[in-house]
């Protein structure tokens, strides 16, 4: 998560949420204070019982193009043949099915408060998968039983978050409300490792943190003079040698490492170390007054990243949170475009992530579309196929073949023509369960007396004006559209 510009004035943390800010970066802290805490909304999504489905006249995105035909779902997965007992037949002529989106970089679901505040936004926006990239284990343990459930997003947590003794987020944590002492932070909220030797000495601390990913924070390691500036203490990060040692030890234990970077030199060091993921493109904001153009990725580094198959999270939309002046924003986005073009030309493995505390992957997809480097097919593939698979490689996600998890969105429009179609899902299915804001629909969707057990019954339903599932979908969509908040300003 980026640091606030030095000209920005941090806001005091709201008392109701101060306890959950132990692992959020400074920008998240300010945003949390601004937003305030509040009870969960009354229109939370509920999951129906698992259903057997027949999806007639379906049209779905396979990662390259639209396919068409009839799909079947049973036991939470796509199957080859029509189930013996079908709970719901959906007539989908003219609609489009896409797999749910994934956000490979955020921080807004890594506490009970955050899950209550933003978890429903993820489901509303069709983002079912996410990675939270610097979380205090004490904040995560109480919510582990609540995530990866039918009615909540599936989330990976980096609870092993490694920084230096002068690195971020130490400054933010010490200036929080209430402020934390260093002995409350070091090797508790975050792990501090200044040398490869310290990595070895403290490595046993990682085992008990139940961390899905290990995160390492770099920040302008190529600017050693910053370590002599008192105002920068607690805002920097580790050396390339520490990153390399963390990667070596993690890979020996089959653990994955994600590296936060700031400069182009940080990016290159993370690539050479063999990180599994790099959390953002360099230069989302010039933190120290440097020229934005200094953040260009050299072509040979882009080629090496492609060769090593490192997952590079885009996180371009986070720049808008700094509200840079128009001329500066234009220069930053010009660099973002050039970096995306170089990575694309090299065949690098791009992933969608927003690092947007008030948003998610849907915001990033729209911003990438505005940048214009990747076409709509590529963007849809990154968000719905490549990123989910990268986060959860042991699962069959982002696909519609037999054996794939039956999680998908039903859209009125065709996102290959207009990505705004992603903003209007009329139905959300998660592992064969309908996600709905209507209690009665969730409670009765899988009842036996709704089953369509014969071909004749299926034909009768299909030839009628509306199937019950289709009526349900439209009813849900009508309620959603009437109560939907205004679109996120400044993120599209």
Describe this protein's structure:
This protein has helices at residues 26-35, 112-124, 137-140, 170-174, 182-185, 196-202, 204-207, 240-252, 264-273, 299-307, 326-346, 361-371, 376-391, 439-444, 455-463, 468-483; strands at residues 46-47, 53-61, 66-74, 77-79, 88-91, 96-98, 101-106, 127-132, 154-157, 160-163, 191-192, 214-217, 257-260, 277-278, 311-313, 349-351, 408-411, 425-430, 433-436. The protein is of the alpha/beta class. It has a seven-stranded parallel sheet with strand order 11-10-12-13-14-15-16. The protein has a five-stranded antiparallel sheet with strand order 1-19-18-17-6. The chain has a four-stranded mixed sheet with strand order 4-3-2-5. The longest helix has 21 residues, at 326-346. The chain is globular, with a radius of gyration of 23 Å. The two termini are 19 Å apart.
What attributes characterize this protein structure?
single chain; 492 residues; alpha/beta; seven-stranded parallel beta sheet; five-stranded antiparallel beta sheet; globular; disordered N terminus; disordered C terminus
